[in-house]
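hey m, so remember when u said the tokens were messed up on ur end? i reran from scratch. heres the input so u can diff it against urs
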Amino acid sequence: MAFTNQFKSLAAVLKYYQIHYKEADFAIIKTATLNESVRQDIIFTLREVAYDVSEAAICENLIYPILKEAWKLYSDIFAIWSHAALEYDDELSGIPDYLISKRSDLGKIIFDSPLLAVVEAKKDNFSAGWAQCATEMVAIQKINNNSALGVYGIVSNGEIWEIAMLKNQQFTFYPKRFVIEALDDLFNMLVSMLEICKMQLTPQGSM
């Protein structure tokens, strides 16, 4: 069954898998300077491109460029995947819009432990987006076979970005929305999230 049609809401996912819900503030723990050419390209896209005419256009024009730019800072540690299959079992299988995983020692084409899933909020439906994203996060947790490893999720319509973390049987939603108009804050949220994922991969890392 595909991720997109299993559940209709985040609450349904959490109830089915018996996961506790809480809300918390997300801390920016690391900052970086966004490449100026990327910044100008995003500004140009917002002004001149009809990016909201399709899901693919939103992903290609807004979500992926920003996500990729943050990932570049960690490209020696993580791999980035676009529309790659995520498969655990018949119930938890599908194709997320984007994934970031641990970079495999076997090479860039080898899929290793996923840590972050990104879902485009289709038709600006964040409720359905979180139902899909949370299911992907559960699949990732099971694939990793390590519930103590925090798994992050992002749901975005390109302009608005919402984030959450799944660790053990606790789903933490961060209510603050990051918006593309505040591009530096958005970029540093992504950088901080990847920094936390990096810290988790060190022997003493735990968040």
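this time it looks ok to me. The chain is about 35% helix and 25% strand. if urs says something different then somethings off w ur setup not the seq
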